[in-house]
Amino acid sequence: MSDDIFITEERIEGAEDGPLAGKTVAVKDNISTDGVRTTCGSRMLEDYVPPYDATVVSRLKAAGATIVGKANMDEFGMGTTTETSYFGETDNPAAPGHVPGGSSGGSAAAVAAGEADLALGSDTGGSVRCPAAFCGVVGIKPTYGLVSRYGLIAYGNSLEQIGPFGETVEDAAQLLDVIAGSDDRDATTRSEGDDSSYADAATGDVDGLSIGVPTELLEGADEGVVETFWEALGELEDRGAEYHEVSLPSVEHAVEAYYVIAMSEASSNLARFDGVRYGHSGGYDGNWNETFARAREEGFGDEVKRRILLGTYALSAGYHDKYYKKAQDARAWVKQDFDEALSEADVLASPTMPVPPFELGESLNDPLQLYLADANTVPVNLADLPAISVPAGETDGLPVGLQLVGPAFGEERLIRAASALA
Amino acid sequence: MSDDAVSPEEVRHVADLARVDLDDDEVDRFTEQFADILEYFETLDEVPEVDRETDLTNVMRPDEERPSLESEAALGNAPETEDGYFKGPNVS
Predict the structure, then answer these.
(1) ipTM exceeding the 0.85 mark
(2) What domains are defined for chain B?
(3) What is the mean pLDDT of residues A20-43?
(4) B residues 52-81 closer than 8 Å to A (CB)
(5) Where is the composition biased (Basic and acidic residues) (chain B) (predicted)?
């Protein structure tokens, strides 16, 4: 069961005492572990063994956690199903025969299957929240800057955060307490999480909570998903929350803005993989441009090549203003929309994913259709905001997630609200 | 498909800039997919110009010596090394 969840199964023992003593944690395979292979789900890094720990891994060890393995993922985090991994697909423990979501599919599956108590993933455009929703577990995408990215192998560095998975909101919050906080090795971290007590906020108290429901994030969603979403919202209402509809007109352009920015950043971040200092070698025949191009042809899969090429295109002379600059405008617009909506609501709620989990192998051939499935998650990364996905119920036996979005560094509020459901 | 859909030559040119070799099948497949994806990206034209707030501040730290990786560890993942250096392909 566990062999398709982990790329590398290896125990890393933490300190004897600490808040996570006795807890097992799965770590996504793009987070560096000293002496333990870290592949990013790619042939390029099939044999790469980091010589240092990511900050979040040092913090896990110091907190007494036991790491049980490096979890499967879409190659370099690029995907929504974990099927782009060079090491093969991962089945969904909550819905066998279906994808676990992505890109942190192995992490979510590890928690859903009971292979680990907790897990770490990374979320560039939904890569924690999507698999949490598809596997029926809880996943948190922290505010940009709450958690150190030191040792996280970069894909879209202005968008991504490492985030926790747990079976309950309180479990995930406890892991967030351990990893949050400033780090002098990541200059984009902030001090808001330094003395956090997120787990204590998991009281389930939603009395008087004001919930905004962005109508744009329900349009076009699967009927069964929408029905399950409203049932969960009804539960929150029964406990004293109230909701009203809000509008986020900018999110209509969020998916294209997200992909232009993420691909542009990917084309730059992945330029380091030349097969000389680490990674798959292109050999020594011919000049360096030829051998680099050969290393990258052999080491990268289709989706990674697609994004590097499209990002290179979007940044190339003559197209920069048309794509990248407009995408940055859209990003600023999305931020303004969220600020406005959150000035009249405590949190915003939507289905995490507009669709239930795909069947394995169903979706790989049409990249654009797959990008559109990220419609509800990517706006949050563009706006640098925190969000949580919590199980809302099932449609036809398939898990559905409810996403709550809060103001910057409003993790406590999200945890309090979401803990009413799980 | 929009007027300026990408051609196979453009896909090859971009792949060359990005230093990624492609075989003919990949060029054909990407040409078709990029047309769809770029047509979708065109809708960014409808985005208004937005005042971008820049509330970013520089983060500085004292310029102090601290330990870094030993060269053996830094070279540990290199496919080839020579005399404590990375070994790369010919430059010209």
Answers:
(1) yes
(2) 8-45 (1.10.20)
(3) 98
(4) 52-53, 59, 61, 69, 73-74, 76-80
(5) 59-69
